[in-house]
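Progress note, sequence design subtask.
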């Protein structure tokens, strides 16, 4: 029988003091005094079983890393502020818009590179082996629920052809990196969300062009091959490059990795605000021309706003994401997933890679209306996703007693 001993270094010898007993006990009582540690700054060491390879040292997370994590979690604030600035003063982002669509492609390329730097192939493989059914279900939900909803909404709302194509293209895009941040806020299954984002992003090379061609091909001609090549260049290539750099130069990448998510968040905010500022003039003109042309009651003005191009785009995008959140959560619940997994699937399904939708729309479609749903979704999706995340943050994702009992028995 092996015995593990835990030593406390630099300790003083216990002192024993003789006392005169008032009575003599039958069995002698031995008292132990706790030794005092002379050096209070000495690191605490956990006692571990004998068969363990090394001792685990408890180290506190550096303060600067906590600040970086907080700055990263403020992503919805960055996007919202960028959207407000784009509405009030669109010229703020004119320096970035002038170089479009090349600037949008480079921005997305940088975002995906940052994702690749933080994505370890070994961890991805382990998660795929640990949760294969959950990941497969999430990816299937991403490319079935949202495209179907996009097609149904475009038919029900009677959207113009260009906006219908843009809505379907947005619905066929993979999950965005913003979903990982929102899942963290919502106390969901973050590893599942990250792996789903990676898998759906890689699958976008084939599925996004194919689904767009099938569902939107009745409105305008869609070149699936060119869409696939663009997706491969701006999405998969930088992810693979980031993973390669992480494997080849681990020490250098380790110094950059803590800042990669924050830089990706700032890049997403810049691209989102720039795209919105480019289209805000057209959206604003459609609203002003219909809602303030005559002295109408407030209800009539609201109806005119909703009937305008801006109203159609905003309503269709909001309904698309709301339905994605709801149906994604419902499908995961019916499949028997735990509450954290339901939240991860719901957020992953409901939040799209709007930047990819904008890049594909501006690069492969001549009508500027195709980019409007993705550009508007940048603001609406992040506000809705953030509200859902903070709502779930107030609700503890504990499993019911029945599921816990089954787990314990097994």
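Output:
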């Amino acid at each position: 029988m092996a015995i593990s001993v835990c030593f406390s270094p630099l300790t003083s010898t216990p002192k024993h003091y003789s006392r005169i007993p008032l009575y003599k006990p039958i069995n002698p009582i031995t008292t132990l005094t706790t030794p005092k540690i002379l050096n209070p700054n000495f690191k605490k060491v956990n006692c571990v079983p004998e068969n363990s390879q090394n001792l685990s040292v408890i180290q506190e997370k550096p303060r600067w890393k906590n600040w970086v994590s907080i700055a990263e979690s403020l992503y919805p604030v960055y996007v919202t502020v960028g959207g407000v600035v784009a509405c009030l003063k669109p010229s703020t982002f004119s320096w970035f818009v002038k170089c479009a669509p090349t600037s949008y492609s480079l921005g997305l390329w940088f975002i995906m590179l940052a994702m690749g730097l933080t994505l370890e192939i070994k961890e991805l493989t382990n998660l795929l082996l640990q949760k294969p059914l959950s990941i497969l279900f999430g990816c299937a939900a991403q490319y079935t629920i949202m495209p179907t909803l996009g097609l149904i909404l475009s038919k029900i709302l009677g959207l113009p052809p260009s906006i219908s194509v843009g809505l379907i293209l947005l619905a066929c895009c993979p999950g965005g990196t913003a979903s990982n941040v929102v899942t963290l806020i919502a106390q969901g299954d973050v590893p599942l969300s990250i792996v789903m984002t990676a898998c759906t992003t890689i699958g976008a090379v084939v599925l996004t062009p194919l689904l767009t061609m099938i569902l939107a091909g009745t409105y305008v001609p869609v070149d699936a091959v060119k869409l696939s090549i663009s997706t491969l260049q701006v999405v998969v290539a930088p992810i693979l490059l980031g993973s390669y750099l992480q494997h080849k130069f681990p020490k250098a990448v380790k110094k950059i990795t803590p800042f990669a998510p924050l830089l990706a968040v700032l890049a997403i905010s810049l691209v989102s605000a720039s795209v919105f500022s480019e289209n805000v003039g057209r959206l604003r003109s459609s609203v002003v021309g219909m809602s303030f042309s005559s002295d109408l009651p407030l209800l009539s003005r609201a109806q005119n706003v909703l009937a305008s191009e801006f109203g159609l785009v905003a309503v269709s995008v909001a309904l698309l994401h709301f339905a994605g959140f709801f149906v994604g959560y419902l499908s995961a619940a019916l499949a028997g997933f735990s509450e954290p997994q339901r939240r991860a699937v719901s957020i992953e399904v409901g939040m799209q890679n709007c930047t990819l939708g904008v890049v594909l729309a501006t690069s492969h479609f001549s009508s500027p209306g195709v980019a409007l749903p993705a550009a508007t979704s940048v603001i609406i999706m992040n506000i809705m996703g953030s509200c859902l995340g903070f709502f779930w943050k107030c609700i503890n994702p504990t499993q019911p007693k029945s599921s816990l009992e089954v787990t314990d028995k097994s």
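The longest helix spans residues 260-291. Work on this subtask will continue into the next period as scheduled.
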